[in-house]
Specification:
With 215 residues, the chain is α+β, with helices and mostly antiparallel strands. The protein is built from five helices and nine strands; from the N terminus they run αβαβαββαβββββα. Strands 1-2-9-8-7-4-5 form a seven-stranded mixed sheet, sandwiched between helices. Strands 3-6 form a two-stranded antiparallel sheet.
């Protein structure tokens, strides 16, 4: 379920920094005991298909992800990985109190404008003002209302949108583009668009990983 430029690009960016050790896990390894807090600080799910990622790791993998974060691990999700984190899907990892505003997810692909919140600038280090970012059918979040998961905090908002294929017009504008939340002792950071594939935003992934790791 993780395909395209996501895993190679994230591995490339983190691989340039000696402060990170990157391990690529197969779907089958997510639920076989490999993903554990003694071995890793953060798990990252990149672009592709959230439902296919869920199917690939299976219920044992989803349980392992929940346990990993609950015990203090970090989770970074980008596009498909941001879908996977949601509480609002039957196949979701249910570590983020979020769902999508519409089941019509195929909104479009291209550049949109986002604007970081004060918290987003603090965590991710980007300046004030709107900026372009690559978007490829990422989730349009709203709160799922789960009493068991703390509310997420927006780190950035969409300021423009795609609304193709019958998706609701206006739903994307001013909705959260990036969010941060907590699950148990762990931290969750998700991005609907693709900063790792946007010129000038290459520093996103390192900062997201460090924040999610509590560092």
């Amino acid at each position: 379920g993780s395909f395209g430029k996501g895993v190679p690009r994230v591995s490339e960016l983190l691989g340039k920094d000696a402060g990170f050790a990157v391990t690529k896990l197969k779907g089958s390894q997510m639920g076989d005991g490999t993903l554990k807090r003694e071995s890793f600080d953060v798990v990252i799910f990149t672009g592709g298909s959230g439902s296919k990622q869920s199917k690939a790791i299976g219920e044992p993998g989803l349980a392992a992800v929940r346990r990993f974060v609950e015990e203090g691990g970090g989770y970074v999700g980008i596009c498909a990985g941001a879908y996977l984190a949601c509480e609002g899907f039957s196949w979701g990892a249910k570590i983020l109190d979020a769902k999508t505003v519409s089941s019509k997810w195929k909104r479009g692909v291209g550049d949109v404008k986002i604007e970081f919140t004060d918290k987003g600038r603090e965590i991710l280090g980007f300046p004030a003002g709107q900026r372009d970012i690559r978007y490829a059918n990422g989730p349009i979040y709203t709160t799922a209302g789960s009493p068991a998961i703390p509310d997420f905090e927006p780190l950035a908002h969409f300021r423009t949108e795609f609304a193709g294929n019958g998706s609701p017009v206006g739903a994307m504008v001013n909705s959260p583009a990036m969010v941060a939340g907590a699950f148990g002792k762990g931290r969750v950071l998700c991005s609907s668009p693709h900063p790792e594939q946007t010129a000038g935003m290459e520093g996103f992934i390192a900062r997201a990983v460090k924040w999610s790791a509590g560092r």
